[in-house]
UniProtKB/TrEMBL annotation:
GO terms assigned for molecular function: acyltransferase activity, transferring groups other than amino-acyl groups
Matching InterPro entries: Acyl_CoA_acyltransferase (IPR016181), GNAT_dom (IPR000182), N-acetyltransferase (IPR051531)
Family annotation (Gene3D superfamilies): 3.40.630.30
Lineage: Bacteria, Pseudomonadati, Pseudomonadota, Alphaproteobacteria, Sphingomonadales
Keyword Cell inner membrane recorded: no
Keywords associated with the record: Transferase
Limits of the N-acetyltransferase domain: 7-176
Protein name (record): N-acetyltransferase
Top-level taxon in the UniProt lineage: Bacteria
Length: 182
Protein backbone atom coordinates (compact mmCIF):
# COMPACT_ATOMS: atom_id res chain seq x y z
CA UNK A 1 0.00 0.00 0.00
CA UNK A 2 1.18 3.51 -0.83
CA UNK A 3 0.03 6.30 1.45
CA UNK A 4 0.04 10.02 0.66
CA UNK A 5 -1.33 12.87 2.78
CA UNK A 6 -4.82 12.37 1.31
CA UNK A 7 -4.80 8.99 -0.46
CA UNK A 8 -4.26 5.27 -0.15
CA UNK A 9 -3.18 3.32 -3.22
CA UNK A 10 -3.93 -0.32 -2.49
CA UNK A 11 -4.75 -3.70 -3.95
CA UNK A 12 -8.20 -4.26 -5.36
CA UNK A 13 -11.06 -5.91 -3.48
CA UNK A 14 -14.06 -7.59 -5.14
CA UNK A 15 -16.22 -5.01 -3.34
CA UNK A 16 -14.51 -2.31 -5.47
CA UNK A 17 -16.16 -3.55 -8.67
CA UNK A 18 -19.51 -1.77 -8.17
CA UNK A 19 -18.10 1.66 -7.22
CA UNK A 20 -15.50 1.31 -9.98
CA UNK A 21 -18.29 0.58 -12.45
CA UNK A 22 -19.98 3.83 -11.40
CA UNK A 23 -16.78 5.67 -12.30
CA UNK A 24 -16.34 3.78 -15.57
CA UNK A 25 -19.94 4.29 -16.65
CA UNK A 26 -19.55 8.08 -16.62
CA UNK A 27 -19.24 9.20 -20.27
CA UNK A 28 -17.00 12.13 -19.26
CA UNK A 29 -14.57 9.85 -17.41
CA UNK A 30 -14.52 7.47 -20.39
CA UNK A 31 -14.36 10.21 -23.04
CA UNK A 32 -10.81 9.25 -24.12
CA UNK A 33 -10.87 5.63 -22.94
CA UNK A 34 -13.68 3.97 -24.86
CA UNK A 35 -17.25 3.00 -24.19
CA UNK A 36 -18.68 3.18 -20.65
CA UNK A 37 -18.16 -0.14 -18.88
CA UNK A 38 -20.68 -2.60 -17.49
CA UNK A 39 -20.43 -4.20 -14.06
CA UNK A 40 -19.22 -7.45 -15.66
CA UNK A 41 -16.47 -5.55 -17.48
CA UNK A 42 -15.32 -3.77 -14.33
CA UNK A 43 -15.33 -7.08 -12.43
CA UNK A 44 -12.94 -8.41 -15.09
CA UNK A 45 -10.69 -5.37 -14.67
CA UNK A 46 -10.62 -5.87 -10.90
CA UNK A 47 -9.75 -9.57 -11.37
CA UNK A 48 -6.99 -8.71 -13.87
CA UNK A 49 -5.53 -6.13 -11.49
CA UNK A 50 -5.62 -8.63 -8.60
CA UNK A 51 -3.82 -11.22 -10.74
CA UNK A 52 -1.26 -8.66 -11.90
CA UNK A 53 -0.61 -7.59 -8.30
CA UNK A 54 -0.14 -11.22 -7.24
CA UNK A 55 2.21 -11.97 -10.15
CA UNK A 56 4.23 -8.75 -10.43
CA UNK A 57 3.77 -6.95 -7.11
CA UNK A 58 2.16 -3.94 -8.78
CA UNK A 59 -0.81 -2.93 -10.93
CA UNK A 60 -3.07 0.06 -11.52
CA UNK A 61 -3.88 0.22 -7.79
CA UNK A 62 -7.25 1.20 -6.36
CA UNK A 63 -7.17 4.83 -5.21
CA UNK A 64 -9.00 5.46 -1.95
CA UNK A 65 -9.69 8.76 -0.22
CA UNK A 66 -8.12 8.42 3.25
CA UNK A 67 -10.64 10.55 5.11
CA UNK A 68 -13.83 9.07 3.63
CA UNK A 69 -12.73 5.62 2.42
CA UNK A 70 -14.33 6.35 -0.98
CA UNK A 71 -12.98 4.59 -4.05
CA UNK A 72 -11.82 7.44 -6.27
CA UNK A 73 -10.46 5.45 -9.22
CA UNK A 74 -7.01 4.03 -9.82
CA UNK A 75 -3.37 5.00 -10.25
CA UNK A 76 -0.40 2.72 -10.66
CA UNK A 77 1.84 0.95 -13.12
CA UNK A 78 1.62 -2.10 -15.34
CA UNK A 79 3.48 -3.55 -18.33
CA UNK A 80 2.84 -1.57 -21.51
CA UNK A 81 0.31 -3.14 -23.86
CA UNK A 82 1.53 -5.51 -26.55
CA UNK A 83 1.57 -3.93 -29.99
CA UNK A 84 1.98 -0.38 -28.69
CA UNK A 85 5.01 1.89 -28.62
CA UNK A 86 5.44 1.05 -24.92
CA UNK A 87 5.32 -2.73 -25.28
CA UNK A 88 7.90 -4.06 -22.82
CA UNK A 89 8.06 -0.78 -20.88
CA UNK A 90 6.49 0.17 -17.54
CA UNK A 91 3.30 2.20 -18.04
CA UNK A 92 1.84 4.60 -15.48
CA UNK A 93 -1.88 5.21 -15.67
CA UNK A 94 -4.74 6.83 -13.79
CA UNK A 95 -8.51 7.10 -13.93
CA UNK A 96 -10.56 9.06 -11.45
CA UNK A 97 -14.21 9.81 -10.74
CA UNK A 98 -15.22 13.24 -12.02
CA UNK A 99 -16.21 14.38 -8.51
CA UNK A 100 -12.51 14.34 -7.54
CA UNK A 101 -11.15 16.19 -10.60
CA UNK A 102 -9.34 19.49 -10.21
CA UNK A 103 -8.12 19.07 -6.62
CA UNK A 104 -4.63 17.71 -7.32
CA UNK A 105 -5.43 14.09 -6.41
CA UNK A 106 -4.19 12.65 -9.71
CA UNK A 107 -0.88 14.52 -9.38
CA UNK A 108 -0.51 13.39 -5.77
CA UNK A 109 -1.20 9.77 -6.66
CA UNK A 110 0.97 9.72 -9.78
CA UNK A 111 3.96 11.29 -8.01
CA UNK A 112 3.63 8.74 -5.19
CA UNK A 113 3.58 5.92 -7.77
CA UNK A 114 6.68 7.34 -9.51
CA UNK A 115 8.50 7.57 -6.17
CA UNK A 116 7.48 3.96 -5.43
CA UNK A 117 8.78 2.78 -8.82
CA UNK A 118 12.18 4.43 -8.37
CA UNK A 119 12.48 2.93 -4.87
CA UNK A 120 11.27 -0.58 -5.73
CA UNK A 121 11.76 -1.46 -9.40
CA UNK A 122 14.88 -1.64 -11.53
CA UNK A 123 13.62 0.30 -14.53
CA UNK A 124 15.23 3.28 -16.24
CA UNK A 125 12.00 4.95 -17.33
CA UNK A 126 8.24 5.13 -16.86
CA UNK A 127 5.95 5.57 -19.86
CA UNK A 128 2.44 6.93 -20.44
CA UNK A 129 0.06 7.00 -23.40
CA UNK A 130 -3.22 8.71 -24.14
CA UNK A 131 -5.40 9.95 -26.98
CA UNK A 132 -4.15 13.26 -28.45
CA UNK A 133 -7.38 15.04 -27.44
CA UNK A 134 -6.91 14.10 -23.77
CA UNK A 135 -5.37 17.40 -22.75
CA UNK A 136 -5.98 16.83 -19.02
CA UNK A 137 -3.84 13.68 -18.97
CA UNK A 138 -1.15 15.27 -21.12
CA UNK A 139 -1.05 18.28 -18.77
CA UNK A 140 -0.53 15.89 -15.84
CA UNK A 141 2.22 14.07 -17.73
CA UNK A 142 4.00 17.39 -18.23
CA UNK A 143 3.55 18.37 -14.55
CA UNK A 144 5.19 15.07 -13.64
CA UNK A 145 8.18 15.98 -15.80
CA UNK A 146 7.36 13.56 -18.61
CA UNK A 147 8.54 14.25 -22.16
CA UNK A 148 6.57 13.60 -25.37
CA UNK A 149 8.06 11.29 -28.01
CA UNK A 150 6.31 12.25 -31.25
CA UNK A 151 8.16 9.55 -33.21
CA UNK A 152 6.59 6.93 -30.90
CA UNK A 153 2.98 8.08 -31.35
CA UNK A 154 0.93 5.14 -32.66
CA UNK A 155 -2.43 3.64 -33.55
CA UNK A 156 -3.68 1.66 -30.53
CA UNK A 157 -4.39 -1.95 -31.57
CA UNK A 158 -7.25 -2.26 -29.04
CA UNK A 159 -9.24 0.39 -30.92
CA UNK A 160 -10.85 -0.37 -34.29
CA UNK A 161 -9.65 1.38 -37.46
CA UNK A 162 -11.45 4.67 -37.90
CA UNK A 163 -12.11 5.10 -34.17
CA UNK A 164 -11.08 8.65 -33.14
CA UNK A 165 -9.47 7.16 -30.00
CA UNK A 166 -7.16 4.89 -32.02
CA UNK A 167 -4.42 7.54 -32.29
CA UNK A 168 -2.22 7.73 -29.18
CA UNK A 169 0.62 9.96 -28.01
CA UNK A 170 3.59 8.68 -26.02
CA UNK A 171 5.41 10.23 -23.04
CA UNK A 172 8.19 9.05 -20.73
CA UNK A 173 10.04 10.00 -17.58
CA UNK A 174 13.62 8.86 -17.03
CA UNK A 175 14.94 7.72 -13.68
CA UNK A 176 16.66 10.65 -11.98
CA UNK A 177 20.46 10.53 -11.99
CA UNK A 178 22.11 9.90 -8.69
CA UNK A 179 23.50 13.15 -7.31
CA UNK A 180 27.17 12.73 -6.46
CA UNK A 181 28.01 13.35 -2.83
CA UNK A 182 29.99 16.54 -2.17
Amino acid sequence: MIETPRLLLRGWRQADAAPFQEICSDPQVMEYLGEPMTLAETELVVSRMQAMQAQLGYCFWAMEHKETGALMGFCGVKPGAIGTSIDGQLEIGWRMARAWWGAGYASEAAQAVIDWVWANLKVDSIWAITAPANQRSQALMLRLGMVRHRKLDFQHPAMPPGDPLRAHVTYSLNRPSAVPEA
